[in-house]
Design brief:
Blueprint lengths: L12 H12 L2 E2 H11 L8 H13 L3 E7 L5 E7 L1 H29 L1
Antiparallel strand pairs: 1-3, 2-3
Helix pairs in contact: 1-4
């Protein structure tokens, strides 16, 4: 049986999902990836090779901040938190995504006709 084709997310999607997940609560990287997988009903699996570079981009843009903490398994981890600038950025990105999604939906609906 063939494995389903893996597709890349559109540019900015991973960052938007990270920010939205961190809006609910601060998390360390592994917990963040697990939460995205859980909320997506296992449809999205974020690999470390994508997650940590995205977190670094968000840190550099000051959309998130990181502090050292201890995980539930008593390990030292970086816990990521959304900043005020991150909240504003997330709102803008969600609005842009909704507009893009509406446009795609209209095009797909027109193709069916």
């Amino acid at each position: 049986m063939r494995k389903p084709e893996q597709r890349d997310l559109f540019p900015g999607a991973l960052e938007m999902m990270i920010l939205r997940t961190l809006k609910r609560q601060p998390l360390h990287g592994y917990a963040l990836a697990k939460q995205i997988k859980y909320v997506s009903n296992d449809l999205l699996q974020i690999e470390e090779g994508s997650l940590y570079p995205a977190l670094q981009r968000l840190l550099k843009a000051e959309l998130v901040k990181a502090e050292w903490g201890i995980s539930s398994t008593n390990r030292r981890v970086r816990i990521y938190k959304l900043t005020a600038a991150g909240v504003k950025h997330l709102q803008r990105e969600i609005s842009r995504f909704e507009q893009m999604f509406e446009g795609i939906t209209r095009v797909l609906a027109a193709i069916k006709s």
